[in-house]
Amino acid sequence: MTRFALIAAPIAIAVSLLLNSGGDDTGLPTDSPKAEAAATGPVNPDPFAAADDEERREMNERVGRAPAGLADPKMREIAWRLLSSAEGSTLDWRTQYGTIEDSGDGTGYAAGLVGFCSGTHDMLAFVEAFTKDHPDNPLAPFLPALRKVDGTGSHEGLDPGFTAAWKKAADDPAFRRAQEEVRDKQYFEPAVRLAKLDGLGTLGQFIYFDTMVLQGPGHEADSFYGIRRAALAEADTVAEGGDESAYLDIFLDTARAVMKSKKNQQHDTSRIDTAQRVFLEDGNLELEPPLTWKMYGETFRIPS
Which of 5, 33, 38, 238 is the most exposed place for a label (fewest CB within 10 A)? Predict the structure, then answer.
C-alpha cells in the first residue's frame, strides 16, 4: 500500500462528524498538532458544500441529469477494484479492511480501504470517531500513541501490538462499515458529484476519486482541490466548453507533478502512467471494460 497525502485538518473533522451524529465536537484532540490549523483553516473547499441552498438545488439537478457513470453499481465496483489495485495491489478490495503496513514514505502506518495514515491525522480522526460509538474496540488503547505520533512517521507507542489490533478490529462488521462510509461520503460521492458538475464522464469521475483518496480533499496546492484549481487555470472543463480529453490530460499532468514533488522519495506514479493515462489515451472516457492496466509492474485485468 502506498499513500503520499497529508490530509488537511478540516477533512479530518469531517471524518469525525461523518461517523458521529449530533453536537459540536469536531473530534480533534486539544493536543493534536492539527487542532490550531482546523480552527483557522477553510471550512470546506468543496464548492458544493460552500454553496447556498438554491445553488445546491441547481447543482443536484445538474448531477441528476448526468449519465449514471460511477453511480451505476457495476461501475462503482470497478472503481473499488481499480483503487484497490493502487492501494493494495489486488482487485479484491474486500480483503483490504485489515491491511496495515509502513511503506517507508514518512506517513507512518497506512491501513484499510483508503490508506488511513498514522502520520497524516486521518487515521487518528477515524479511530477517535469510531471509538466514540465503540469504546471497547481493539484500537481504543492506542489513541494516546496515535495522538503523539500524529504528523510524523514514528511508531512510538504503537509497536508492538497496533498492527494486530487493527487486524482484529477489521473482523468487526461495524469497523468495516465505518471504513466504507468514510470512503463513500468523504471521497467517492464528493468526487463523482464534482466531476459530473464539470461535465466529465466515468473515467474523469474515477480520476477525481482516486486523486482525492491519494492526495486528500484539502485546499492546498498538493491536495485534490488545489490540483483541480491548477488544472482549471490551464484548460476548460466540459461544462465550460472545453475538450474532455484535453482537460483530463492537464489534470493528470498536474496530479503527477504533485506526486513527484512530495517530500518523500517514493514517487511511483503507476496509478497515472500505466493505468489512468492508458485509459485516456485509448479514448475510453466511459471506462468501459474490458480493462487492462499495470500497477507497480503487475498487470491487472477486468473482463467485459
Answer: 33
Of 10, 76, 82, residue with least CA distance to 39: 10
Q: Which residues are catalytically annotated?
A: 87, 105
Task: Name residue, grid cell 497515472.
Answer: 272
Q: Are 38 and 7 in contact (CB under 8 A)?
A: no
Which residue bears the cell 470546506? Answer: 44
Pair 197, 239: CB distance under 8 Å: yes
Residue 181 C-alpha cell reads as: 462510509
Other CB atoms within 10 A of residue 269 CB: 16
**pLDDT computed for residue 7 by the predictor:** 39
Query: Environment class of residue 76 by beta-carbon count within 10 Å: exposed (0-12), middle (13-18) or buried (19+)?
Result: middle
C-beta separation of 179 from 186 below 8 A: no
Output the pTM of the full model. 0.86
9 against 247, higher pLDDT: 247
The answer to whether residues 208 and 195 touch, using CB atoms and an 8 Å cutoff, is yes
Sheet strands (E) in 121-276: none
